[in-house]
Amino acid sequence: MTPERVCAVSDLPDGEAKGFTLSRDGRQTRIVVVRQGDVLRAYLNRCPHEGTPLDWTPGRFLSPRKEYLVCQIHGALFEIEDGFCVDGPCAGDSLVPLEISVHEDEIFVLTGDGDA
User: Fold this and answer.
1) Which of 1, 28, 29, 60 is the most buried (most CB within 10 A)?
2) Residue 63: its pLDDT value, please?
């Protein structure tokens, strides 16, 4: 696995989440990256309920108070810290976390061969 550049840290405002599509070897992987201060987290942009992207409305990932990631289709709520679903049709399941790193203000994510 090779780290893939996502964006600059400065491109992701504190308290926000942003979706990205990474391309490698002709395959695309949709991800979401969340920033809370200096802490960054990344997940596959795929609800465990039916495999749909979280942001049915493009770019909308967070609850109104920005305390949960939300599946815009069925309203499932996921803890930002670990992707655990606390409410909705997939309660008890989790988003797929991705390894994330920062080098010289650039965000990089590792995606595996089974990601889609």
Assistant:
1) 29
2) 95
